[in-house]
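Example record for the data management plan.
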Amino acid sequence: MKRREFITLLGGAAGWPIATRAQQPGMPVIGFLGPPSPGPYAPYVTGFARGLKEAGYVEGQNVAIEYLWAENQNDRLPALAAELVRRQVSVIATLGTGAMAAKVATNTIPIVFLLGEDPVRLGLVASPRANLTGLNLFSGELTAKRLEILRELLPAAKRVALLVNPTGPNAETTIRDVGPAASGLFSHHLCTIE
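Corresponding structural encoding:
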């Protein structure tokens, strides 16, 4: 399944809590907490809206969406999540690092997340919380397979470089998993640039 399909599924999943919170007066509001910048993310927002539509929610007709973007500055996420809580949105839909910020900001507003990492290992859903649900891509588990494919595509390569955002939710796992996965396939030396 492609990333856009997952975003579409996230949009549909964001509609679930709205149905359960129907007692809220007026049009329900979805708070979309986006860690990246909105420009390059436009196709995914389209997929999100498509998922909502498939669940029976159309922006401007029976649901409103408040988009808040961190512009790739993860340190802004806690304030943005708190802003969505102040606005009393019906549900918060978010990605990656936005999920942790939303979890800290509220334990009552439903949070629907999309992660590339294990939410239990991250401590996102370590204890039962009725307001958290989401989709997990388990992309960290694909590290070894990606390196094998790279080796098949570039059999003469002796070294490969891995760029990781050290503040991203997958950084620790990616760095931990790439060493053993690269062992025997490539000469490897890992360093972190912060």
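Summary line stored alongside the record: Residues 19-24 have pLDDT under 50 and may be disordered.
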